[in-house]
Amino acid sequence: MTTAYSGKHYFFQEEKVLINVVGVFILTTLFYFFGAMLRLVDELSLFWPLNGVMAGIFARYAFLNKPLYYFVCYLAMIVYDSVTTTWGLASLAVNFSNMIFIVLVARLLIRDQVRSKGTPRAINALNLFNYCLIGALFSALFGAVASIDIDDRNFLPLFADWFSEQFATGVLILPCMLTMKTPVFRERISADKIYPLIGVAVSLGASVMVGGAGSLAFPLPALIWCAVRFTLPASCLVTFLTGVIEIVLVANSIIEINSHATLITSQMFSARLGIATIAICPLIVSISVAAINKLMAQVSRRADYDYLTGVHSRSGLHEALKIMDENGNVPRQMSMMLLDIDYFKGINDNYGHECGDLVLAAFAAKVGQVVGERGLVARMGGEEFAVFCPGADAEEGYIIAEQIRNAVAQHAFEWKKNRLWLTVSIGLGSKTRSWDSFTEAFGELMPHADRYLYISKNQGRNRTSAENMPSESLTQRAV
């Protein structure tokens, strides 16, 4: 089974069982240690990251969802407790409740991701909320009973602490675990990225100054602002850190929410549930923004690139030229060539349009490989392609054209055990002058390239025609 949430395995690998076992054991021990250091509320942890982290690990690496790795995770908890606590047999039941949350939530997340086929949808955020709710409920039921022997409280207060902690931790940590990836810093940090973070900090300060249960919601607008401005992983991380900070502030009475519950709940119970509920809002916004951006990118690509060959479409080439115009630096030397596959109609007639489509795609790939960074390749329609080379004079333009022609002639295109050999006719237009824009150069060189393409086809095809045909030595350089 492949991973449900991650395309690359940097730590765990399906075929390396020993490495996986060691990895699960180490991670479980590490995050168990973190949780144990935060046991500020009776015998239970103020913030217990282990279950959310391990549920995220098992969800990201679906091949880990086997009894062996579940047992290793459980064993690591037992070993840690046997060294650091005097809980005895009660540790078996307490840690089994942790496994209930880990296994149940991981399985639900994998099922949900398989059904949605990896598409980031806002409904998945709501599903995550529900899965944490279910996992926390069953884990708390078992854990509260198991904790009675190691805690001086009765079932209901224990259940409230177990449930609220598991639920809040899951909602805050799991989005980070499921979206986590290696950061890539491509842009400078700009003001529109700093202001949302300042808004989060200011709203947390306001929560401390104002107090009350409602103050926990103060960071929500700033978190939604972050969700709009940041990537999904970054937004999840900011939301997680904000939620943890609020939990710590409430636990230390820095934010006093003055909750006087009439039944069993404490202010920590109320705070955790409130923070978890608030955290899901920016998550939904961030996932929605990511889905919209992905859709817009797909629409843009379909408009700007030919769906069959992957090179620029006619309209996409014009858009690329406009972008180049905005960047300026228009060179004096320009070359433009039109390419037409010789006798392409015969391929469709003899082998069918499916073969023709394959040939077009392979031809475009070969042309793009030859041109590289020296120019733009576009499909103008049918079997006709254009190559625009800014900065290339007539000599260099001719060399590129001949390199294309020779590469195509020497490449066999495969189709159902048939080897198809193609040739291409090329018309080249080149000129050196002071251009106002790339768009202007393209528009002026296009008729020249079209005229010389017509000459190439009339003179026998499989040739390059230009205004001033180069010397024999230049032709040899192009081979």
TrEMBL record:
InterPro entries attached to this UniProt entry: Diguanylate_Cyclase, GGDEF_dom, Nucleotide_cyclase, Rev_trsase/Diguanyl_cyclase
Gene Ontology MF, one: diguanylate cyclase activity
GGDEF domain segment(s): 332-469
Residues annotated as transmembrane: 17-40, 46-63, 89-110, 122-146, 166-185, 197-218, 230-252, 273-292
Pathway(s) served: Purine metabolism; 3',5'-cyclic di-GMP biosynthesis
E.C. number: 2.7.7.65
Top-level division of the source organism's lineage: Bacteria
Protein keywords: GTP-binding, Membrane, Nucleotide-binding, Nucleotidyltransferase, Transferase, Transmembrane, Transmembrane helix
The keyword Iron belongs to this UniProt entry's keyword annotation: no
Catalysed reaction equations from the record: 2 GTP = 3',3'-c-di-GMP + 2 diphosphate
Pfam families: GGDEF
Cofactor dependence: Mg(2+)
Name of the protein: diguanylate cyclase
Protein source organism: Siccibacter colletis
